[in-house]
């Protein structure tokens, strides 16, 4: 029997790529379109992972492909620091308009979410002349040294890679399903936000703190959504103490939750917003956008990088933003979220393994537990469900501190038929767990 191409490529991968890069599935992509991926052996998959929240406009969107081709035929690189180009400026102009806040803004581009996070911290420290950064339990901010330090989960992201960067402090996140303070919402009066005041006494002084960096919805940490009052309280404490309120919207931004930026659900305005992932539909690009006086604080030459704001990536991002406008993609995202949430809620009623369904818009997850009362993480069962889904043609991922959540990050262009088919596979996989 002839060896499948998948097996051939797997053997090659094992011989030339180190074990460090993990793979969610054992497949190799041949092509992708919309919400579907086709592998090298002709298998079709419904994609509920979206390259980990990168393909909000769908795989190989014709407008993105056309923009990439057009720019590549003109020039692919000059380095913005050597010879400037218009796509960088036009994208900065658009993002300054789209990010929350009715005040002058400026934008800086880098290559990855981690770079965006690290640049935001550099800018915050320079503007405030303070060293400390406060982050949160369950947060994920990247894999470079500072971003890895800011990331909460030890294995696999931090294990063996220390020592870590100094002046990073971690406080509790409002995880109501598993309240770290042992309280119940709403009787708690969102005490986890007020906890920041105690934090200044016990861990780091407010006068030494440059920024609070927070994901509006935890990504890798389990799609945890804070209560309605949370960010209002947190941002107010930051303002009272001259601390910058920075939102890491690398995963939640660019329509993932049904708003262009997730923090809009709370009506709060960050000083700095970090985006990446779906910003350029798979091209390497991240952005830091914020108050002009803060962004403009660092000296000439203090920010940048050889590839940051690459012209091809900028053109892809401009195409993405045009797609949102021309195809009413935020409206479609909200409708998709309502349908998907309804189907997940049905599964929760049918399957005892589901402890909670949560998320915003089409950024959704199910927390699996072996005992609903004790909320015992069903880690092995979650892995089993993920494997079964892959075998049946649906790409999903798990996440959370214990790996017991199933997270859904389907492209916002997913059709009703694809949604129903994918959810049917997921339901059968949940019911097959023993």
Describe the protein's architecture and organization.
The chain has 434 residues and is of the alpha/beta class. The protein has two domains: 5-60 and 329-432, Aspartate Aminotransferase, domain 1 (Alpha-Beta Complex); 75-326, Type I PLP-dependent aspartate aminotransferase-like (Major domain) (Aspartate Aminotransferase, domain 2, 3-Layer(aba) Sandwich), CATH 3.40.640. It is built from 13 helices and 16 strands. It has helices at 5-16, 50-53, 62-74, 86-98, 113-128, 145-150, 191-202, 230-240, 292-295, 311-326, 329-350, 379-392, 416-432, and strands spanning 29-33, 36-39, 44-47, 105-110, 132-136, 168-171, 209-214, 244-248, 272-275, 286-291, 354-360, 363-371, 376-377, 394-395, 397-399, 405-408. The strands form three sheets. It has a seven-stranded mixed sheet, with helices on both faces. Strands 11, 12, 13, 15 and 16 form a five-stranded antiparallel sheet that branches. The chain is globular and about 55 Å long. The mean pLDDT is 97. Belongs to the class-III pyridoxal-phosphate-dependent aminotransferase family. Pfam families: Aminotran_3 (PF00202).
